[in-house]
Amino acid sequence: MSDDFMIDTDDLERRMEGAMTNLKTEFASLRTGRASASMLEPVMVEAYGQKTPINQVGTVNVPEPRMVTVNVWDKSMVGAVEKAIRNSGLGINPQLNGTIIMLPIPELNEERRRELGRVAAQYAESARVSVRNVRRDGMDQIKKAKNDGMSEDDQKLWETEVQDLTNKFIANVDKALETKQAEIMQV
C-alpha cells in the first residue's frame, strides 16, 4: 500500500468498537430474570426540571438475586422515581418503603422471554447499522482518495481492509446477540 493515501482504519475500528460498547450497554439493561443494577441505567427521572439518570437521584442496590432497591436521597423525589420506573417498560412493579423503592424481579414467562429476545435482536440490528455506517464513511474516504489520485490497486487493498474490519464487527454483534438470547431463554 502506498503511504501517499492513508485511510485511518484505527478511527474506523474505534468507532465500530463504540457501536459494540453501546450494544453491550443496551444488552445489560435487558433483564433476564436475575436482578441487576444496570437494568435501571436507561431509566430517566424527571428531577429538578430535567431528565436525570436514576443513579443520580438515589443509590441502586441488588440485595438479593430477585430484588433491586433504589434508596432515593431526596424524599420529594420518591414519587417521580417510582413513576419513571413504572413508565420505563421494564415490566417491574415498584413497592415503596419510605425513601426506599423495592423492585421485586418476577420470573420471566415464555412470552416475555420471546419479547425480550426480539428487543435484543432490534438492539443488535441497530449496532449492525452503526457498523455499516462507519464502513460507508471509510469507503467514502477511499473514493475521495481515488479521486485525488490513489491507484486502483491501493483502492482495492483499502476497500478489502475496511470490509474485513466490518465483517469482524458484524460477526461480534451476531455472537453477542446469540449469547444474550441464550441467556434470556435460559429458565
What does this structure look like?
It is found in: Cytoplasm. Pfam families: RRF. The structure is a single chain. This protein is α+β, with helices and mostly antiparallel strands and 187 residues long. The protein folds into 2 domains: 9-27 and 109-185, Topoisomerase I, Chain A, domain 4 (Orthogonal Bundle); 34-104, Gyrase A, domain 2 (2-Layer Sandwich), CATH 3.30.1360.40. The chain has 4 helices and 6 strands. It has helices at 9-29, 78-86, 110-147, 152-185; strands at 44-47, 50-53, 58-64, 67-72, 95-97, 100-104. The chain has a 4-stranded antiparallel β-sheet with strand order 3-4-6-5, with helices on one face. The protein has a two-stranded antiparallel ribbon with strand order 1-2. Helix 1 (9-29) runs parallel beside helix 4 and helix 3 runs antiparallel to helix 4 (152-185). The longest helix is centred in the last third of the chain and has 38 residues, at 110-147. The radius of gyration is 22 Å and the shape is elongated. The model has no long low-confidence stretch (mean pLDDT 87).
